[in-house]
Amino acid sequence: MQNGFFKNIEKKTGVNMNDIFELANSLQNANFKDEKTVRNVIRKVSQIANKPVSREMENKLVESIVKDGKKIDFNTISNMINKK
């Protein structure tokens, strides 16, 4: 039943659920005070969402997350990317 549910989401969004689960697992123990880690997460979300992120936007996201201590999850980054 769950497998069919995820397949439907993949069809509608074009996003591979395995990629989402991998990303979610990597976020659990990530150090979001580390700029390199945050940049890698932003790039991965951008790739999964098929939304290119300019260097300027990436810098703004990194600053917001690392310096401002903003909590991060897939939705946070996705929402920030979609606001550009």
Question: Which keywords apply here?
Answer:
84 residues; mainly alpha; Sporulation protein; single chain; SpoVIF
How does this structure look, described?
The structure is a single chain. This protein has 84 residues and is mainly alpha-helical. It has one domain (18-82). The chain contains five helices and no strands. The chain has helices at residues 2-13, 17-28, 35-49, 55-67, 74-82. Helix 2 (17-28) packs antiparallel against helix 3 and helix 3 (35-49) crosses helix 4. This is Sporulation protein.
Q: What is the approximate shape?
A: globular
Distance between the termini: 36 Å
Decide which structural class fits the backbone.
mainly alpha
Query: Beta-sheet strand percentage?
Result: under 5%
Order of helices and strands: HHHHH
